[in-house]
Amino acid sequence: MDWSDAGILESWQNPTEVYSSYIMQNDVESEIMPTEKNLLTPIDLKEFFIQFQDHLAPKLDTYEQAIYLYIFRKSRLLGIDEVTIGFKTARARLATGIGEGGKPMSETSCYSRLRSLEQKGCIKVVRTNHDGRLLRLYLPSEIQGVIPPPALERVIDIETMDFFDDSANRLLLLKRENYKCFYTLQKLDKDNFIVEHVVSRPAGNNSYRNCVAASREANNKKGATSAEDFLRRLYRENILNESEFQDRIRVLAQLKNGLLKPPLE
Fold it and tell me: What is the CATH number of domain 31-142?
């Protein structure tokens, strides 16, 4: 391949255009020459083959794939919208090794696959004339139902999450509390912590604003006492020192104001 003829020095930044231009200029087998009317913009070859192999090829049999790629080679690869191909002779250049003794596909098989490709929306037979069939090929991205829609990003609304009944969410509270009891700062792990309601039910709910990771001892000791009064009791009993008590009062206010969100990642 003479890259200078393809304009490689002037268009090195776009190898897809260079390759397509070279083929167009040297395609001695083309059944139709491009005109200003039927020329299309260059395609992204990498994206095409990814979409073809990942999404379209699994929907086609081997002969359908061979015919589709042959039409692609003669049309869209060159930027041509429609192309006339005579399959009585072209079928010998499509695929071998599937039929008896590696012979090319029969005319019957070829025309059958053309019809199935049209039924699947891969091509359109515009008309049939003396030279063959005038065809329009559709890229995988242009065929309805071939490329799956992008997955919608799941939107998590932390305000509606249940942090008491959902076991996975309960562990998020333990992580938020840095594996310590919210009240006593006693070290905890996933086997010995419980979820405690700051405001007891039914007045309190199961949101992250009202649920904390705590030790079983603290939960039993607190009972229906308000969180503020319970922290004062812990301070009076020297379970919390003054600095820890002030810190717990501050963190409790953050919790109620929705500023102490559990890590969701």
Answer: 1.10.10
